[in-house]
Amino acid sequence: MNKNKSANINVTSVFHVDLPFDTYSYKLTVLGDCKVLDSWEKPKIWLRQIPNSTLWVSDPVQLPAKLNVEYKYCLVSGGYTPRSLNFEGYGFGTNRQMEFRENIYDVWDDSETFKKRIISTDDYTFINYIYDY
After folding, report:
1. At 73, which CATH number?
2. Of all residues in the chain, what percent carry a pLDDT higher than 70?
């Protein structure tokens, strides 16, 4: 039996992330440390905003079911350049660890540039979407 066979197993996942602030002209992407997530390089998996909400969703993504995949969400301004990447969190110590499942639900981690606004009870579209989906 081929021991490397498990290395070729993929999981189909959809990323859902709540961005409780105005993104203006920025676009949301997800980057990570595997080839599908562009190995922290040029984005190719983009999320789209659900109308009248703070929820962003990706198309289904085939991810390699390997251990320890790290990822982060990133806002990109205008056309892509390495300087146009605005990662969530405060450095690589705040990378997310992939949990392989059909739907991945996250909330944007504050960064120096983009911080969540204080949410009101009217801002629970994200939770409603999860339970109604």
Report:
1. 2.60.40.10
2. 79
